[in-house]
Amino acid sequence: MKTAVLRNIVLGVLVGTAMSATAAFAANATITLNAADPYIGYMNVSDLPSAGGAFEFGSSWGTADLSAVFTGANLTLTPNSIGDPNPYWYTPSGGPGATGNKIMEANMYVETTGPLANTNVTFTAYVLSNTLTSAHVAKAFIRDFAPDYSSVVEQSVVLPTSGNFSIALTTINDPARHVQYGFQVKGPDVWATDLAPFGSVVIAPMSATPTVKSTWGKLKAEYR
Predict the structure, then answer these.
(1) Quick check: is 169 in a domain?
(2) Structural domain total, the chain
(3) What CATH number did the domain enclosing 137 receive?
(4) How confident is the model at residue 6 (pLDDT cuts 50, 70, 90)?
(5) Is residue 21 in a domain?
(6) How far is Cα 101 from Cα 214, in angstroms, rounded to an integer?
(7) 224 in helix, strand or coil?
(8) By the 8 A CB rule, do 212 and 28 touch?
(9) Pick the residue with more confidence: 26 or 47?
(10) Could you tell me if residue 134 is inside a domain?
(11) 103 vs 93: CA distance, rounded Å
(12) Peptide bond into 92 cis (omega under 30)
């Protein structure tokens, strides 16, 4: 009787340990830039810091309207340009030499809901050139949003002048959360004919890296 009870206790401990280990070992996913991925755009617009910096609005935009364009496999990011000459956007109004009147936070990203939950996500690519001036900042990011977008966990990195970047985030184990990875350019809007001096960023994909998943079954097999 005592032997049977002891055996059940040991089995219970082993099962509990196995279940804990299953939850603890997240999958691994390495992602790079891919022109075939379903990138989407979102723009956040704020007043200039000199005008108080208040948030104005955020809305979905086409990626080309962000000033984010693929040429083959490579992605080019430039400061945002609004074609509307209204003084809301430019001072004194739109035209060559006008001063941008809003801070444009242009976000271009892929969003998944479910597949990247409980995953060690790595996002990497190669910056061929980054000639942006100090007026604008370009970043790469991974974001893990709550199901209702009320909160977010984020990792980001400012893109270098050239060379590879790599960021990683272990996402929360909830298939209802939204995981995004992509790029952001933030700074004042620039009239189209004045864009060249403000620079651009050109990004290329890294060599393909296979996704590797770690599961409790694989771990057990390794230690048999």
Answers:
(1) yes
(2) 1
(3) 2.60.120
(4) very low
(5) no
(6) 50
(7) coil
(8) yes
(9) 47
(10) yes
(11) 16
(12) yes
Both tokens assigned to 118: 């409980």
Angstrom distance (rounded) from CA 138 to CA 106: 9
CA distance 98 to 89: 10
Instruction: Summarize pLDDT for 163-213 with one digit per residue, the tens.
Output: 999 999 999 999 999 999 999 999 999 999 999 999 999 999 997 444 444
Task: For strands 55-61 and 119-130, give the pairing.
Answer: unpaired
Q: Tell me which residue has tokens 């086409």.
A: 62
Contact indicator for 117, 174 with CB cutoff of 8 Å: yes
For residue 98, give its domain range. 27-207
Q: How far apart are CA 44 and CA 104, in angstroms?
A: 6
Neighbours of 132 (CB within 10 A): 20
With respect to residue 214, please indicate whether it lies within any of the assigned structural domains: no
Q: Residue with structure tokens 């809901």?
A: 113
To the nearest whole number, what is the mean pLDDT of the chain? 87
Order of strands across the sheet that contains 40-47 = 55-61, 40-47, 102-113, 178-188, 137-145, 152-158
Q: Which amino acid is at 100?
A: G
Determine if the pTM surpasses 0.85. Answer: no
Q: List the one residue out of 145, 28, 132 whose CA is nearest residue 79.
A: 132
The contacts of residue 114 (CB under 8 Å, 6+ apart) are 175, 176
